[in-house]
Amino acid sequence: ARSDEGGWTGVNERTFIAVKPDGVQRRLLGEIVRRFEKRGFKLVAVKLVKASEELLREHYWQLRNKPFYSTLISYMSSGPVVAMVWQGLDVVKTARKMLGETNPADSLPGTIRGDFCVEVGKNVIHGSDSVESAQKEIALWFRQSELHRWESSTKTWIY
Ligand code: GDP
Ligand code: MG
């Protein structure tokens, strides 16, 4: 149910996913989108963006004191990223499972990071780590008017 602005939970839960610059440059976008579609999630927003350092500093504010922070900001601003919002039952947690671990070396085959990368500093994709982070990240990357509400004509007989 919709609790408040952006406050979707349960079946209408939303998460923020970004294909990072290496993922875009390696033409992994279609493969990644395909996995989310086939899992059964609904795309409610998508855009190709060259993120500003200001936006990235806000996005990664919790990591501001980490030794890799400046490397992370320059990596993320090195080229366009594909910012997306996906919606569906437990999408935040499920998407994190689909991504794999932060370090690709710890990510199982079958996960996005486990299948497509080897280095923590070039790990292809971002996914929100909690419903609360998802709400903040969606509000940071998207205007309300960019979030689309639509229903599948097959809704009544599939789910
Ligand atoms: P995530 O939620 O799995 O993306 O991981 P974190 O929120 O902990 O870190 C954010 C991002 O920072 C990761 O996805 C990596 O791109 C990067 N990162 C995390 N740890 C390291 C590290 O030890 N070295 C480098 N170079 N980048 C890192
Ligand atoms: Mg994180």
TrEMBL record:
Reaction(s) catalysed (UniProt annotation): a 2'-deoxyribonucleoside 5'-diphosphate + ATP = a 2'-deoxyribonucleoside 5'-triphosphate + ADP; a ribonucleoside 5'-diphosphate + ATP = a ribonucleoside 5'-triphosphate + ADP
Positions with a binding annotation for ATP: K20, F68, R96, T102, R113, N123
Cofactor: Mg(2+)
Catalytic-site annotation from UniProt: H126 (pros-phosphohistidine intermediate)
EC number(s) on file: 2.7.4.6
Nucleoside diphosphate kinase-like domain boundaries: 12-149
InterPro entries named among the record's database cross-references: NDK-like_dom, NDK-like_dom_sf, Nucleoside_diP_kinase, Nucleoside_diP_kinase_AS
GO CC entries: cytoplasm; lamellipodium; nucleus; ruffle
Keywords associated with the record: ATP-binding, Cell cycle, Cell projection, Cytoplasm, Kinase, Magnesium, Metal-binding, Nucleotide-binding, Nucleus, Transferase
Transmembrane segments: none
BP terms from Gene Ontology: CTP biosynthetic process; determination of left/right symmetry; GTP biosynthetic process; kidney development; positive regulation of adenylate cyclase-activating G protein-coupled receptor signaling pathway; UTP biosynthetic process
Gene Ontology molecular functions: ATP binding; metal ion binding; nucleoside diphosphate kinase activity
Pfam families associated with the record: NDK
Location of this chain's protein in the cell: Cell projection, Lamellipodium; Cell projection, Ruffle; Cytoplasm; Nucleus
Source domain of life: Eukaryota
Family label: Belongs to the NDK family.
Function, in words: Major role in the synthesis of nucleoside triphosphates other than ATP.
Protein name as catalogued: Nucleoside diphosphate kinase
Protein source organism: Fundulus heteroclitus
